[in-house]
Structure formats: C-alpha cells, structure tokens
Amino acid sequence: MNSRRDFLQKIGVSALMLQLGSVAFADTPNHFEQPYDGKVLRVAIMGLGGYGTRVAEAMKACTKAKLVGVISGTPSKIKEWQTKYNIPEKNCYNYENFDQVKNNKDIDAIYVITPNALHHSQVIRVAKAGKHAICEKPMALNAIEAQEMIDACKKANVKLLIGYRMHFEPHTLEVIRMRKAGEFGKIMFFQAQCGFKAGDPNQWRLNKALAGGGAMMDIGIYAINGARYMVGEEPIWVTAQETKTDSLKFKEGVDETIQFQLGFPSGAVASCLSSYNINYLDRFFMSGNNGFAEMQPSTGYGPIKGRTHKGELMQAITTHQTVQMDEMATIIFDDNKPIVPVNGEEGLKDLKIIEAIYLAAKIEKKVNLNI
Amino acid sequence: MNSRRDFLQKIGVSALMLQLGSVAFADTPNHFEQPYDGKVLRVAIMGLGGYGTRVAEAMKACTKAKLVGVISGTPSKIKEWQTKYNIPEKNCYNYENFDQVKNNKDIDAIYVITPNALHHSQVIRVAKAGKHAICEKPMALNAIEAQEMIDACKKANVKLLIGYRMHFEPHTLEVIRMRKAGEFGKIMFFQAQCGFKAGDPNQWRLNKALAGGGAMMDIGIYAINGARYMVGEEPIWVTAQETKTDSLKFKEGVDETIQFQLGFPSGAVASCLSSYNINYLDRFFMSGNNGFAEMQPSTGYGPIKGRTHKGELMQAITTHQTVQMDEMATIIFDDNKPIVPVNGEEGLKDLKIIEAIYLAAKIEKKVNLNI
C-alpha cells in the first residue's frame, strides 16, 4: 500500500521537487516505480457537476482506478464526457435506468457525486445493483439515512466508501503519524477554521431541501472529521453558536456561520468554525504538551502546507482525488485498511456530530455525545 | 505624539533594521530625534516582582518617564532596587506607610504591579494620596471594585491608567488603522488564542484569593481586550466552556482552560481561548470581506509578528513597556488620547466581560452583555 508515495520518499523526491503544480505528484512519470499489474477499479461517476469533473480529471493520473462510465440526467453532458474520457455508450446511464448497471460486468464501483439529499436513495440503488458505492461527503442528510445506507451495502455485500480525500493526504497523514508516535505529547487543543464565502446564491448547496443544511454539511464537516482524525478520539460533548448576517442568501435551515466546540475523553478540547460567509480561513492547529502542528491551508484542493515544532512539513504534494481513488481501489480489492477509515461508519459518526451541533446551536446548550 | 515611531517610519528605519533584540527600538540612540524637553513623568513602582522588574528595565530607555521610587514589603528588595536604579531613600515606601507619598513632590504617579486582589485598595490609597495611578491588568477582581477605583480617582482628580501595553504596540496599531480605514472590509470573524503552560504551582496567579481566578484574569484578558480593539465594537453576547484537566494545580475557582465566543452588533463573531495549560498559542486572526490580519505572536513580550492580505507587517519592533510608559506620560501631562483607551473605564469593560464569561461557563448558557 501507498507504494508510490513510499517509493518517492525513499528516493528522496521532496515536496519541493514535486511542486510543479497542484497535480505534480499525479503527473510523476510511471518509470519512477514498477508498473502496476494488479486489478484496476473501473468506476462510473454519478453526477457530472463541478466536483465530478474534478474527480474525473484527477483520475486520469490514477494507476489503480479508471473512469469507465457516467450517470447523469443531462444527455448533452453524457455526450461531452464520452468524448472527453472515451466512455463507451454501453457504460452510460441516466437516473431512471442506472439500476441496470447490475448487468454491466465492466463497472465495479459507482462514485455518487450528486446533491446531498440524493445520496441515500442513490447509494441504496447502487448497492442493490451489486456495485461498490463511493459516496461524497456528507454521505446523507442525517444519521438514520446513513445507517440505512450502511445496512443496504452490507446486505448486498458491497463496500461503501465516503469521499474523505484528506484521509489520503501526505501532510495530514504525517501529523497523524507524529501524534500516534507521541511526538506532540498529550494533546490539549485542536482548532479548525473551515469556510469560505459561498458564491452563486442559487447553487444547490444553499438549498435546504437538496443540501440538508448549509456550510456545516459542506465545509464544517472537514472541521468535525479533522478534529477526530487529528486528536484521535471521539468527542463526548459539543456546544455550538450560530450566527446569520445574510438571511436572504442563507435561508431558514441553511447555516451561514456556526462556531462549535468539542470535548474529548482525555480532556482535550476543540474550537471549530464553519462558515459560508468568512474568507481567508482553512487552518488546522493542534497543540500538545511537547509540540504543535499547524496546517494552513489544511483542507483546500491545492497544496497542503504545514509545520510542526520540528519544522516545515515536506511531504509530497498530491492531487487528493488521484490518491484517494487509487487507495480506494486497494480498499475495495485488497481489503486494505487505510490509516483513517473512509467507510460508512466513519461518515455516520460525522453525521451524528452534525446533528448534535445543530441541536446544540438551536437549544443553546451543551449536547452530550456517545458515538 | 508617537514622535519617535513616526520619525523612524519617516526615515525608513524598518522593523528588520531595528530587530537587534527585543529592546532594539528602545535602545535606538537619541540622536535619531530631537531631544525631549518636556515634563518627565516621575514614577514609583509598587510591587517589585517579575513584571515590576521588567517594567523598571524597560523604563531605562524612556524619554518621558522615569523610575524614581519604589513601594515594597521586602526591605532587601528595596535596597537592591535603590542601588540598581539610583533611587533615593526618601522615595522608598512600604505597604504601611505609602500613603505618605502624598507629601512627596518628587513622585507624580504610582504603577501598581501587585497581585490582582490588592489593586483595589492600593489604587484607592494612591488616589487619596493625590498621585496618578497606573494599574496592571486586570485592574481589579470584579466590576464593582473597578467602578470604586474609577470613582476614587475621579474624586481625587488624578488619572487612572491600566497597563494595556498592546495599546501602544506598532503592529497592533497598524492593524487597527487598516480596519478603521476599511482595508479589511466588513469584519466577520476574530480569533484569539491566548495561553501558555503555567509554571510554579505556588505562584500567586494560581491562588484564587490573590488572583481572583485563573488564566482568564491573567492571559484570557488579552483575548477579550484584543477582540474589542481589533473588531472595534463591544460584544453583546458571550458563551463559554470551561475545561479542567489538572485540578490539583488549578484549584476551585482557578480556571485552567476556557473557550469563549463573543458576538458583536455588526454580526461579527469571535472565537477565543484562554489557557494556563496549553502551549504554542499566542495568535490573533481577523477576517473581513476584503482582507485579513494574522498576528503570531500577538501579545507576547518579544517581537510581535504579523501579516495581512497586503503582506508582512513591517512596523518597528518595540519594548512594549518603554513605549507604554512614554505614552502614558503624554496621557497624564498633555491629556493625549491614545488610539485605544487605557483608562479605568476600559479596564472596567474587560472585567464586565470576564464576569459574563465566568457566568456563561458556569450556567452553560449564553449571557447577554450591555457594556
């Protein structure tokens, strides 16, 4: 596992050398390593929007995964993708007929990259069609939906993976390694500032019915998930404060800005920010008795940068989605266990915390958690 | 006012050039500017501990203020200071007899640098002796005490100034200038991480009776005060979460770690951390619609560093206490109005917020403020 990264590290290819652009790692010529001769995960993407396009582009550089099919409600988009990615007619579906993928032996997995509200029914249909499901985060609108999706995939004996791209990001993994090795000492504090100014007011992400909420569902989830993988514990309480300055853009049920705090069993605490209306964020910070880690940017698509008490983090710069899809192939085929899980249970935990945050913000009281 | 700094900026003496040490600015030879020929504030320091010593050392470089007297309960310390700072016997007092300073024409002001619990009675005695009072922060244990101190100084027609050294720090003042000029646009978010691991468990700062609390009274107050001068508004609500991991070191009533959040009339919010048990902190961050400011370190004694969306802040590196005392001389003699007030009312506001934070942490509910 992680053979490309391990190999690059071994031969001393530093982040700096690879930093020819944000896709530098993905574009590294194959002669740097042994050609991959294992099974290739053949993926269909469901939902051909902005992020779907980003994943498709990143997958060009994958060695273990390949884009082979599309599912979309827009015939013109399907045509366009067919040309661009050389996708045969027989691997193209729409939202009415994609259950027929059951009979398609050339597709192994379907990556669901549609509005949040659709994930639940679509993943269950993917499972029923006997295909592995990869689902964008948040995996569902709430914990009940998430549990049903997990159950459906179990019943169909297919894998359910959530698109947590940071779980494969080298700087992130290095900080987790250092924490596990005790290099920070006892963790006392974690901070995440996640947010940006949302653009187009008509996008589905600002539509409660499609998104299930606002910033928290889309970007706040990085703070939640990050707190868990950085601190290495599950939170036992949450408090939250919601602020809305623009109720035209951020309508009822669509959160603009939420500050939230998490408490962990060890006594560590986290201070997190989720916002669709604050610029210049994207920072993780963790402080232990013996050291610290600061990542800034921490979850953006571009290069992640970080430093610790030992100096600058110099891990390889990767295209997150390329590494994610290659690694997901090994999870699906080889039952590889990633350092940070990306299974349905992982997605469910984040949704339980999101529900607790929304509740805590509403009742203005601490909410205890047991996840 | 600010003639030295203005002059240095005019002639292009950059922070880098001045950065020969943390006292570089203070040590800048006098021939850089016109010699000061105004009145010099003659100061006695009450309380000859660690911070008193720091102030005394910094005052060596003052042009408008001079250390001329001491008040202490320890005769050996008085002797030591007399030698070190050339202080005449007639300007030395103890805690029993310092009211007699009333008859000493050679002392203009007394800087009270004693444990927090003593500030109230000592400042009132200073006022009754007809001397201007400079008082370390927090100015008192609570708002009632603070109001009584303000009243006593008003009645005696003496000034009451609080030792807010950051109010004179050039990087800080530049960020405030930029905010007032609209360079950040509408302020949306402020963050302050203030804290360190407290050392000696027997120090007065960890004694509820002397300190009136824990980290919040000592270091958390920087976050409160910083939020106010950075955002430029007074908070209208506060929420707070207290965490204690070491109840032997941090006894009943001595707060170890408190996270608190502030809401402002404009809709801006602040996320703050106050801790005596978390290392690697000392950061301010402010985000507006059009720009940001990050200061790290933000309130430490050493050089303040910062950057904004426009680049690195290159203000002069100063010894905070030197500039503070020179500026306080102009406030006392010339009725100079500093950019950020340091009067008793300013200290009272911080104490009202501290009381609200302690209450919010205790009842685990939002507390509204009207200060």
UniProtKB/TrEMBL annotation, chains A, B:
A molecular function (GO) term: oxidoreductase activity
Record-linked PROSITE patterns: TAT (PS51318)
Domain GFO/IDH/MocA-like oxidoreductase intervals: 175-292
PANTHER family according to UniProt: OXIDOREDUCTASES, TRANS-1,2-DIHYDROBENZENE-1,2-DIOL DEHYDROGENASE
Gene3D superfamilies: Dihydrodipicolinate Reductase, domain 2, NAD(P)-binding Rossmann-like Domain
Pfam families named among the record's database cross-references: GFO_IDH_MocA (PF01408), GFO_IDH_MocA_C3 (PF22725)
Span of domain Gfo/Idh/MocA-like oxidoreductase N-terminal: 41-164
The name this protein goes by in its record: Gfo/Idh/MocA family oxidoreductase
